[in-house]
């Protein structure tokens, strides 16, 4: 027996990051635990400004559909699927799942002094932020828009991520005039 499982991840991810963080590890588990089942599609939904808003993964399940649904949800949560994600098996009601909360850090890309852009490295900032977070969160993806760059961090608690990264943001030149937004629902 086979069926389509349509997953919507409440995650702001570039397609490459969606594949690397969620699809590839999910396929590895499916290969072992649900032979014949496979990730068969995916997409990224974009806001009007081109920023990712969420993403989809389609899985063709073979065998016990309920067991397959449980396996997929468990696997995605173990990777860090954000709260507010859903999985729909066929035409059934969607199942809500997710364990992570997210923070979007929006860096000003146009209004800082020119020397800041000329002498600062965003990768250095990302490394400092990741060091502060340690195992409490990590960057999943980013988006570069016309006036700002967004870095998307996910972890168990958006408040913890916010608190941990504040000292870095207060000191790093590229973090001047930044915005922080919660990007997942609480729950």
Mean pLDDT: 95
Total number of distinct structural domains: 2
The fraction of residues in strands falls at 25-35%
CATH architecture of the largest domain: 2-Layer Sandwich
Q: Going by CATH, what is the homologous superfamily of the largest domain?
A: ACT domain
Structural category is alpha+beta
In terms of topology, how is this protein built?
Elements: E1 2-9, H1 15-33, E2 38-46, E3 52-62, H2 65-79, E4 85-89, E5 95-97, E6 101-108, H3 114-119, H4 122-133, E7 138-144, E8 148-155, H5 158-171, E9 179-182
Helix pairs in contact: 1-2, 4-5
Summarize the structure in words.
There is one protein chain. Strand 2 (about 40-45) and strand 3 (about 50-60) form a beta hairpin. The mean pLDDT is about 95. The protein is elongated, with a radius of gyration of 18 Å. The chain folds into two domains: about 1-95, Alpha-Beta Plaits; about 100-180, Alpha-Beta Plaits (2-Layer Sandwich), CATH 3.30.70.1280. The relative contact order is 0.19. The protein is about 35% helix and about 35% strand. The protein is built from five helices and nine strands. With about 190 residues, it is an alpha+beta fold. It has a five-stranded antiparallel sheet with strand order 2-3-1-4-5, with helices on one face. Strands 7-8-6-9 form a four-stranded antiparallel sheet, with helices on one face. It has helices at about 15-35, 65-80, 115-120, 120-135, 160-170, and strands at about 1-10, 40-45, 50-60, 85-90, 95, 100-110, 140-145, 150-155, 180.
